[in-house]
Amino acid sequence: MAKRSCVLVHGGWCGGWHWDEVAARLRSLGGDVYAPTLAGMAERADEARPDTGLLAHVADVVAVIDEHDLRDIVLVGHSYGGMVVSGAAHERPDRIAELVYLDAWVPEDGQSLADILGPDFVASAHAAADEAGTPTLVPPLYGVEDAVGWTGARAEAFAARRSPTPIQTMYEAVTTNGCVAAQRSFIYCSAKSLGLFEAYARTARESADWRYFELPSPHDAVHAMPAAVVGIIESIREH
After folding, report:
1. Fold annotation for 6-237
2. What is the mean pLDDT of the chain?
3. Nearest to residue 111, comparing CAs of 173, 41, 19?
4. Taking the model in full, what pTM does it have?
5. What does the radius of gyration of the chain's CA atoms come to, in whole angstroms?
6. Fewer CB near the last or first residue (10 Å), C or N of the chain?
7. What 3-state class would DSSP assign to 73?
8. Percent of the chain with pLDDT over 70
9. Between residues 85 and 150, which one has the greater pLDDT?
10. Interior CA angle at 96 toward 94 and 101, to 5°?
11. Domains of the chain: which residue ranges?
């Protein structure tokens, strides 16, 4: 049986590079795997404009689906990527077999990230952007050790690859009605929790409408436990 195609969507402060190891392992197991970089981030940083936001990122993922005529897709979003895949699933509900939220936001219809995080977080993001001298771009708000568990030279190399995230990503609301067409899975990273995704994990764990997985990993399991992430995604591809 042919393997389902995968589209892997990175979170804030990253790019398609975030998935390099996971994507390579999945490709070695068969099937097409795509890991686009979202507008205004990483190697596309020069595309950032004051109005670059969530809807542009949803359009990026939809463009990958359309360009490659992808169907029966496993669509994976990590962290902020959960906002993006929710919007993409609404735009192309007939193309998505499964939505996978990897320690990610699971927005309700019409929610923005600012709605979810609240005014204190939004204010801190603006303060960090202003302090960095880039008022429309938010620098990383948590350290590599918190996210991945790394220290020393390895952490420094990882930190050097991170890039700011357009601040407008916090303000645009996402339409999610189409998400209900797909099976949904949540992967909760339970070690060194950032305190942001527990409610989503609990909902998934207790609901028959979700598949639930848990990893003893920091938030960035893509790097901390790539083999385990591949194992879960592969099990979903073959389901």
Report:
1. Rossmann fold (3.40.50)
2. 93
3. 173
4. 0.96
5. 17
6. N
7. strand
8. 97
9. 85
10. 145
11. 6-237
